[in-house]
Design a protein that fits this description.
This protein starts with a strand and ends in a 13-residue tail after the last strand. Helices cover 45% and strands 13% of the residues. It is elongated, with a radius of gyration of 24 Å. It is an alpha/beta fold and 459 residues long. Bound molecules: nicotinamide-adenine-dinucleotide and uridine-5'-diphosphate-glucuronic acid. The site of uridine-5'-diphosphate-glucuronic acid has 20 residues, from helix 9.
């Protein structure tokens, strides 16, 4: 039996380790966090994150070969392998503010590992980190005078929220980076063997440490770049009567382009895309590559433009004034099937509408609590949070679809239309609904990347 510890019980630690534990009953797993409320929630029937299928897996392994704890020091001492999945947000102070990764949580963890270790260990970077972070970590960890040796591996996580269970159960690939010396390669083999309990070996890719660290940032940058590219073209479609869904479908049929991540939207959100691209931008600047930095930065600039373009279209369509008008935002989560609202375009649209003094009401099946938290007390106090979409729509001038929840498709839009102020508007930031049907009901409909269909004479 190997003692495997995960430090950080957030989205990554909490959704990956239970699945590893379920495939490795021969090993003991512990997940620790400094956040007591989070650990208590992982031990309860209401997990701190909403992730389809996860609760069933946690229930199966919790108390069997997976344990949750806040006693970080004790479990570090007992561990043979430590996964570190603490947060690495964008640094908001000092050098690199607004772009570089804030490594304070990561470094604190490294020092805690050092202080509490009495045996040599394998340390696995699961958090997303700037390229060459492992070098600093090795230096800190191996600076001990206890005769201990630490091998640092990079094993970035590629799961997407909402499909975390599926992504972990059946990953496209598992990436493991290690030092190219004997001890590093032995450590790589240990981790390969762990994953091989359920992942076919040909899907387990091993590289040097720096390739692995950099691959994570580049993978996110490429995914986000596709969305910004299709969103840029959606603006052109709206001017030319081309249809973005048709364009995306047709270009995606070219195998060299592929069909994924070409859904035009109000913008990409989530805790990682923007953070990781800005981190890449910072690294390029740091290494004296300003043109490369500007190239990737534009992906983020385009995304902000798309969010603001969507909000501006709303204001413009509603006769250039929305002050005092009730506007219902359908969706707060940054994508469907998660309660995560970090960097959600829904919140950015909400901020713009509040600036225009609209009376904003927000509805979402799972993410309203996080939306309140992420908006901050001042802004949240000006928003009505209403779990029932019918009540949210009642008396409103407009509905904006900001998260692609299936539930929103199944609503009775005739009933909703009847309860709204007229003229009634739908702004579909996810191209989720049946626009023709909505138009026939009486709505003025504004999709992304397709011409609006309205009953208004001036359009
Ligand atoms: P998160 O904020 O949800 O969770 C991080 C947890 O670490 C928090 O609960 C925090 O309390 C805990 N923590 C911080 N310092 C600690 C310490 N010293 N000891 C114990 N616990 C500590 O973050 P997340 O979304 O899980 O992301 C974690 C990392 O994984 C980030 O680097 C992120 O970029 C990366 N990542 C995230 C996703 C995702 O879908 N969210 C996917 C792939 C990679
Ligand atoms: C993303 C990556 O997909 C994961 O591989 C990665 O591990 C993770 O970031 C991370 O490092 O945190 P995630 O942010 O959870 O995962 O979700 P995505 O499915 O990538 O969606 C991100 C955003 O892009 C969402 O707001 C989504 O609505 C939007 N999106 C996605 C589009 O607007 N159009 C698309 O075609 C696809």
């Amino acid at each position: 039996m190997t003692n495997i510890l995960c430090i950080g019980a957030g989205y990554v630690g909490g959704s990956t380790i239970p699945i590893v534990a379920s495939h490795c009953p021969q090993h003991k797993f512990v997940i620790v966090d400094i956040n007591e409320a989070r650990i208590a929630a992982w031990q309860s029937d209401k997990l701190p994150i909403y992730e389809p299928g996860l609760y069933e897996i946690v229930k199966k392994v919790r108390g069997v070969n997976l344990f949750f704890s806040t006693d970080v020091d004790k479990h570090i001492a007992e561990a043979d392998i430590i996964f570190v999945s603490v947060n690495t947000p964008t640094k908001m102070f000092g050098q690199g503010a607004g772009k570089a990764a804030d490594l304070q949580y990561w470094e604190k963890t490294a020092r805690q590992i050092l202080n509490n270790s009495t045996t040599s260990k394998i340390i696995v970077e699961k958090s997303t980190l700037p390229v060459r972070t492992a070098e600093a970590m090795e230096t800190i960890l191996n600076s001990n005078n206890k005769g201990l040796h630490f091998d640092v591996l990079s094993n970035p996580e590629f799961l997407a929220e909402g499909t975390a269970v599926r992504d972990m159960e059946n990953p496209d690939r598992v990436l493991i980076g290690g030092r190219e010396n004997e001890s590093g390669q032995k450590a790589v083999e240990v981790l390969v063997d762990l994953y091989a309990n359920w992942v076919p070996r040909e899907k387990i890719v091993t590289t040097n440490l720096w390739s692995s660290e950099l691959t994570k940032l580049v993978a996110n940058a490429f995914l986000a770049q596709r969305i910004s590219s299709i969103n840029a073209i959606s603006a052109l479609c709206e001017k030319t009567e081309a249809n973005i869904s048709e364009v995306a479908h047709a270009i995606g049929l070219d195998n060299r382009i592929g069909k994924y991540f070409l859904r035009a939207s109000v913008g990409f959100g989530g805790s990682c895309f923007e953070k990781d691209i800005l981190n890449l931008v910072y690294l390029c600047e740091y290494y004296g590559l300003p043109e490369v930095a500007r190239y990737w930065e534009q992906v983020v600039t385009m995304n902000h433009h798309q969010e603001h373009r969507f909000a501006s279209n709303m204001i413009h369509a509603m006769f250039n004034t929305i002050a005092g008008k009730r506007v219902a935002l359908f969706g707060a989560a940054f994508k469907a099937n998660t309660n995560d609202t970090r960097e959600s375009p829904a919140l950015e649209v909400c901020r713009v509408l509040l600036d225009e003094r609209a009376a904003v009401v927000m509805t979402d099946p799972h993410a309203l609590d996080n939306a309140k938290y992420d908006l901050g007390t001042d802004l949240a106090s000006r928003v009505e949070f209403e779990p029932d979409p019918y009540k949210a729509a009642e008396g409103s001038h407009a509905i904006a679809i900001l998260t692609e929840w299936e539930q929103f498709k199944e609503l009775d839009y005739e009933k909703i239309y009847a309860s709204m102020s007229k003229p009634a508007f739908v702004f579909d930031g996810r191209n989720l609904l049946d626009h023709k049907k909505l138009f026939e009901i009486g709505f003025n409909v504004y999709p992304i990347g397709r011409p609006a269909i309205t009953h208004l004479r001036s359009e």
